[in-house]
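S.,

Sequence below, as promised.
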Amino acid sequence: MEVELNDRKLLPEQALAELPRVPGEVEADSYAGDVRWLLERLRDGSGVRINCGGEDFIAPGGAPWGHDRFFQGGEEIRSDDVRIDGAPAEALYRRMRAFPLTQDESLWGYLLPVPRGRYRVSLHFAEIGRNVPGWRRFDVWVQGQEVLTDLDVVKAAGFRKAVVRNCDVELTGGALSIRFAYRLRKPMVSAIEIQKLD
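The prediction came back faster than expected:
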């Protein structure tokens, strides 16, 4: 799929038209189905919204969030009974994907097969583990560039409070890479949004 989208410079609607369907394949449970889901959102201009560690849901206001997909490594962590202050869509922050130290750090993150272009990447976080500044700290890299250094979500926003960080990237080839680097305890992310800028 990477070759189709980037080497041939296909737009999302062109890639969708060429994406083969496998007879008998259940698209909801397949990588091809996930790619189709991503391309449809980019084609429609609605943006790609991933509920990391969670399921599909509709946020207040009607924004659709898709289940966790395109991740490499990590584990789902949830705390369904907590209240997240200042978040219009609390469900988004009650679950996360965390990346344990027992796994290969080179696999920690997300690899999204988006076409070439400029994108705004919005990363959502909420610390639901401990109300201790400095308890969890990590770096975030997008397309090989460090965009967040020594992020401490409790220090940045507070305990059980949502914080969003944005960065703009130019994708010229390959897939969109979002990587997490350990400093202290498991790096984590609650949700990812990707919006095409041009």
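Helices lie at 2-7, 12-18, 31-44, 153-156.

Coffee later?
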